[in-house]
Write a structure and sequence with these properties.
Layout lengths: L6 H18 L7 H10 L1 H4 L1 H5 L5 H14 L17 H38 L4
Amino acid sequence: FELGMHEQSLVQAVQRGADSANRIAGYLISDFEEYMRRTWNTLPCVALRLRELKLYTVNDFHSGVLNLLRAYGISYATIFSSFRDTPLALEIESFERKTAQNLKLGKIYFEAVTVTLSIISAFALLSGGC
């Protein structure tokens, strides 16, 4: 691509990029409460009606939470990157263990929230709302 960089400089740039992407993904947060807080903050990204409207229905919210739950189907092994042994395989394994734990607990949590919202949605529909 004629970037005017030596190969070693390009390799280092890609390694730094992979390392940065691994760390900012948000999956490595040790504090589960903080991890879930950040996950909830993504709700408007996966539920457009929540972003577009100031007033939304229980079903709109329920749909958004279902979309969050679907995101928990991601394989932790596909989240992290390395390039020419940076970061080291041992560090990637550590990332994957922490992420697997967060994804497992997050999925259980959002499954419980989904069940709760299903019941609330049913009551809303039966009472004439939505």
